[in-house]
Amino acid sequence: MEDMEAKKRIEFLSKELEKYNYQYYVLNNPTVSDFTYDEMMRELRGLEDEFPSLKLSTSPTQRVGGMASSTFEKVSHEVQMMSLQDVFSFEEVSDFVTRCKEMFENSAFVIEPKIDGLSVSLEYENGIFVRGSTRGDGFTGEDVTGNLKTIRSVPLQLDEAPEFLEVRGEVYMPKKQFLALAEQQELNGETPFKNPRNAASGSLRQKDSSITAKRNLDILVFNVQQVDGITWTSHYQSLQALSRYGFKTVQESSLVYTLEEIISEIEKIGNSRNDFSYDIDGVVIKVDDFSQREEMGATTKVPKWAVAYKFPPEEKETELLDIEVSVGRTGAITPIALFRPIRLAGTDVSRASLHNQDFITEKEICIGDTIVVRKAGEIIPEVVRSVAHKADFILYKLPEKCPVCGTKAVRDEEESALRCPNPDCPAQLMKSMIHFASKDAMNIEGLGPQNLIALKEAGLVHSVADLYTLKKESLVELERFADKSADNLIKAIALSKQNSLERLIFGLGIRNIGSRAAKLLCQRFPSIDLIMNATEEEISEIEGFGEVMAHSIVSAFHETHMKTLIERLKEENVAMDYVGASITDTRFAGMTFVLTGTLPTMKRSEAKSLIERFGGKVSGSVSKKTTFVVAGEEAGSKLDKANSLGITILSENDLIEKTK
Prior knowledge:
By secondary structure, the protein is an alpha+beta fold. It is built from 24 helices and 22 strands.
């Protein structure tokens, strides 16, 4: 394919894919099948790899995330991103409306749900998304442009846009996605995010944007911060314009004129809050007219032309019927409150975690108590307090032995948790195998929970190592497997032997070690033997690691059962090396490189691999810690910043010479 033909095809595919993104993620009205979309995306990636100089800055391929960043650059907000004055009663709402009407009798108000997420700024120059940042303290935030590009509802290019436009929006994690993430975190032995807001914040500030991309964040745009080349007179008018540009705006906003209408809208939103796909914690009331806002002014922190009415948390009393004890993948013994069913935030609930013995003791919780329950972040039920004991109450104590295998439990002082130390505990084994086979670990297709249960009940697996000894003949004897499904599973298990080491490390389920940490560990120690012989001091030197993570790794690989498991996996020819790097020459150790612009002959991924092959690290942003910037054609602001900091600039040829 010639350059001109490729250019036209890349432009066509990019435009069509972004149109499909808008229809799916903003309008919720998909017009093509997932297969068609994936085929077009695959073709676009192939063309961009073949013709890197033709890749558009607004390419939809950016939405899967890119290189990890070691830090977030600071961003000074030209227009302060102010917070809102909270009010908690209709009387306070009435006082606000009265103050506004005293200044402008004809004041109109826009009513919007208050999304409980992370506030961000999006900046566009001539319709192109150029920068996105967090609110921070209102004056200074952090540059998270790369992570925001992974959000499918953030338009990368606007149609018929003004010369410059800065908008404000709220990044959030949809309720369904939050529940799925919390479930996965519990399965991995991680501490789940407390609510969707924390999940959105933690996901948007990931140093690795590919992780952010997997979190399926969304955004609603609700305000214009700055605009050049066009004038709007009211907030409601600007929202309609933003929607036409392609932004996902709050559809539940309404324009009203009286206190009675405002209260009616608050009650309407409050009654339907559980129907929203996102979490809300109140209603925002804003004066609509921009000229009236200007005259009303603001304090140093909040505008005088808007308030946020906050919903009171819904709490209900019920009877604690029993406390059930569950054992997690890492051996954590967790008490679960079983109470008389109640309806909270639109759903029936009858159970909630009691966390650990310290929580139970602090709340003085006893079976038979009258307890108060609410939903944390309107999602996860939690016990708030005990309000009444029965006459013969006894403070609940967790069992001294594992309820599944009977092994004496030990207390983890760091997390105030009680744990079963037996690695062969049936409860831990099943959850460990589910985690081991999961997508981000060994990715064994067809080995879901139900199939694993069937294998375990048939006595075919007692350890994850047993998966690699399974025979097709044994599988077809089980009800869940036919000839083809058994054959497919054996092939999937065999294929997993070829995985790079970081998948195995993550799959082993070491406490405090997620998929990203597993990869960083393997980049520093690219074989299982190097990891097992590494000291806590050596591991803690890895950027992003600390003493707790280093201790977890060293402790795990000193356990007898882990050593036995690794030997068994070696015997079954499971790969024990990190294929992303094989570092024997560490001439770039301790050095940080930044790649910018289009290199003459090398793809950026190739340059990154070359640097990492010699022990170097590639960052997505320039800072004082940067050692070299490798610059190609059309290098932009990163090159300018490197020059201002006096950082050495390398060409592609200079980089190659350093590796000879």
